[in-house]
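Could someone model 5,10-Methenyltetrahydrofolate with this protein?
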Amino acid sequence: MTARLLPGAPAAAALLADVAARAARLPAPPRLVMVRLGDDPASVSYVRGKDRQARAAGLESTVHALPEATTQAELLALIAGLNADPAVNGILVQLPLPAHVSEQAVLHAIDPRKDVDGFHPVNVGELWAGRPALRPCTPAGILFLLDHYGLPVVGQRAVVVGRSHIVGRPLAGLLLNRDATVTVAHSRTPDLAAVTREADLLCVAVGQPHLITPGMVKAGATVIDVGINRVPGQDGGKAHLTGDVDPAVAEVAGAITPVPGGVGPMTIAQLLANTVTAAEMQAGGQGTR
Ligand SMILES: NC(=O)C1=CN([C@@H]2O[C@H](COP(=O)(O)OP(=O)(O)OC[C@H]3O[C@@H](n4cnc5c(N)ncnc54)[C@H](OP(=O)(O)O)[C@@H]3O)[C@@H](O)[C@H]2O)C=CC1
Ligand SMILES: Nc1nc(=O)c2c([nH]1)NC[C@@H]1CN(c3ccc(C(=O)N[C@@H](CCC(=O)O)C(=O)O)cc3)C=[N+]21
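Reply:
Sure, complex below.
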């Protein structure tokens, strides 16, 4: 059997159509402001992609590209200004930050109502309490993708490999809120294969190329590959992106997301959806999901 492929593009297009329709109903186009420090090529490229897609969806987007040497106090002052500006609906500070800036201090400083990454402790708490709030983009995008393809979540044995604050933990929370039975595995999990083989729904967010091999996957399972690993080309060929899941897993799984072109596009679409949700909330509507 070869697994059904789950490309992100059609699901992202469906989400973006909804984003554009909701944005058009607001009194003014929602405004997203992104901040990045330094010139890490991956960060530059991600922020550029988000900026371009935001404009394409009818949102306003501003990027503050600050020098690597920006102090924490300067960054906090910028965030305070954005928090106070009623024309700004969503604020994203691209991670990772340089070592001299405390990620925690920055994430705590963003107004939770403008926190389109869903990383502020208030939004983290609301997620784990199962209450509406802004949700982290990659996990929320994964749930949208599963729903788009009609894949079940309720009652599924879900295994999340990875427990980061940006993917693994919030994904586990969202799956739990949707009535999956959730296990979270990590680098200290003994016999990872025994755990992953239990999964009907296996989500992998580790950052190790091809960590998950066919023998670690239950026949027919749905496999969500979050990993984005840049591997050097062979014999001077071009570098390319590959996931945390060995492509041979497609011979065992029932359905699988590609890398690139799987979860990545969902993350960006969900960021724009969160920006519209934030604008709706600030306009006094309900709008959290
Ligand atoms: N497609 C998308 O939109 C996005 C993709 N990514 C990609 O997803 C991957 C993960 O990102 P992120 O969550 O930020 O990564 P982190 O490095 O923050 O976390 C990695 C997690 O994997 C665990 N881990 C490491 N090695 C193993 C192992 N051998 N077995 C089991 N668990 C292991 C770690 O465990 P421990 O906690 O014990 O150290 C940790 O919890 C990366 O490739 C990243 O580029 C990230 C964000 C968005
Ligand atoms: N505050 C903050 N919020 C984030 O959401 C955030 C962050 N910081 N720091 C880095 C990670 C990573 N991340 C990705 C988003 C899109 C793709 C994506 O679109 N990937 C394409 C490929 C892109 C390429 O070609 O490089 C794909 O998978 O098809 C990947 C990774 C968001 N992150």
